[in-house]
Amino acid sequence: MEDVIELLKEQNKTISTMESCTGGYLANTITNVEGSSKVFKFGAVAYSNEFKIKMGVNPNIINDISVYSIDTACEMSKAITKFTNSSIGVGITGELSFIQGQENNYVYVSIYDKEKDTFINKKLVLTNKSRPENKEVIIKEIIKELKNILEK
Prior knowledge:
alpha/beta, globular
């Protein structure tokens, strides 16, 4: 994350997050870096659908498609970018439960780049039984994608 923070500073960009299943783990990872206050504007933990909607997520996406979808993650990343006027927004939604053979261990991540008006989207299949380990996997993937975006 140190590299991401440095790249954001060099490019005079900011970042905000709207997290659900990770419960603020991304925001915590960002704020663990010295000097992150120069680039980190806001971190929302919108665990309930009610607060995703209050933060700007289209309720029709949640109701018609699913709260656990790339569509919802996109809504979250773009809504938090707009709410905070950040350069980059990250939205995370999904389920961290792990039951072998069941489709309840998917997490959807969307990174919105306001300047390019583009999304980088990921569907992650989690294989760890531990919620903290799964959160770590998610954050590592987000860091990798943020570096890719900022190094272009």
